[in-house]
TrEMBL record:
<protein>
    <submittedName>
        <fullName>GTP-binding protein HSR1-related protein</fullName>
    </submittedName>
</protein>
<dbReference type="InterPro" id="IPR012675">
    <property type="entry name" value="Beta-grasp_dom_sf"/>
</dbReference>
<feature type="compositionally biased region" description="Basic and acidic residues">
    <location>
        <begin position="55"/>
        <end position="64"/>
    </location>
</feature>
<dbReference type="InterPro" id="IPR027417">
    <property type="entry name" value="P-loop_NTPase"/>
</dbReference>
<dbReference type="InterPro" id="IPR045001">
    <property type="entry name" value="DRG"/>
</dbReference>
<feature type="region of interest" description="Disordered">
    <location>
        <begin position="55"/>
        <end position="74"/>
    </location>
</feature>
<dbReference type="GO" id="GO:0005525">
    <property type="term" value="F:GTP binding"/>
</dbReference>
<feature type="domain" description="TGS">
    <location>
        <begin position="258"/>
        <end position="330"/>
    </location>
</feature>
<dbReference type="Pfam" id="PF02824">
    <property type="entry name" value="TGS"/>
</dbReference>
<dbReference type="Pfam" id="PF01926">
    <property type="entry name" value="MMR_HSR1"/>
</dbReference>
<dbReference type="InterPro" id="IPR012676">
    <property type="entry name" value="TGS-like"/>
</dbReference>
<feature type="domain" description="G">
    <location>
        <begin position="83"/>
        <end position="179"/>
    </location>
</feature>
<dbReference type="InterPro" id="IPR006073">
    <property type="entry name" value="GTP-bd"/>
</dbReference>
<dbReference type="InterPro" id="IPR004095">
    <property type="entry name" value="TGS"/>
</dbReference>
<dbReference type="GO" id="GO:0003924">
    <property type="term" value="F:GTPase activity"/>
</dbReference>
Amino acid sequence: MPANLTAQYHKAEEQYRQAQTPEDELRCLELMLREIPKHKGTDKLQAELKHKISRAKEEVEQSKKSGGKKSAGIKIPRQGAGRVVIIGGPNSGKSQLLASLTRAAPEIAPYPFTTREVQPGMMAWEDISVQLLDTPPITVDVFDTNLLGIIRGSDLVLLLVDLGDDDGIDQLQQVLDRLGGTKTRLARESSLDEEDIGLSYTQAILVLNKIDLPEAADRLALLREFIKVDLPEIQISALEKTGLAELTSLVIEKLDIVRVYTKLPNKKEADYDKPFTLRRGGTLLDVAEMVHRDIAENFKYARVWGSGVIGGSQLKGDYVVHDKDVVEIHV
């Protein structure tokens, strides 16, 4: 029997994937259990949720008893229209990519392990920005497990491969092996495993870096022969900035976001400087919640100007917004 999970459940599931504290995880798990359809097709998933809730409650209690001093991993506030994390082996070009796509100035050197902490930057695209996170390298011997929370809670992963070195293929395999030994994996789409609610998949792109260097084409042929990676891929040179426009476009496509501009009822023009951004499929009520919780609670209707409606149409909260819609909320 199919689960037929609702949009509300998937929204709670996404919040759970991005939770950074035991309290947040517990709140999201309880919300998932409330939102899940109750029928035979979800019996196993309900049982798994109840088990996870029980474990989460124990973790919260332990944290309280220890005075809340237990580490909750790396905490970096989310900013912009989405979060994209860059991972890879030593010298794969992660810091160079961050520097080439943002105004961040990470330390860049021709020796491994230059990056020791997560470094953020903001990538501009049209009238929005996307948060990029550079991370320490992953190897067979070195793996900061705090990165798992960052990968799990990100909207997209850029898995960099060094085609400028013979070791690049082995480094890619090491990254895949290390993640394969955890419950945080990479895939074409982000999701939680319905058979194991703790197993999380984050959508990823295989970024083939240093494509401009000698023998890069030969190394790419070897990679495709010996390593099977079921991810969309793109070829770039972070240093020479080759392919970065295409990479940026692909990132925006994978984030699948829409921009909404708000307008006050007593104003003729919308605020086009700072659009609200939400995942495709979001509704007017979702926009109202982003503006302010009180506005969402007192939402009556909204007038909408955009590609999917007649200009100024009066619509209910369940209307699915389109990119560049102008919204005038009434409470």
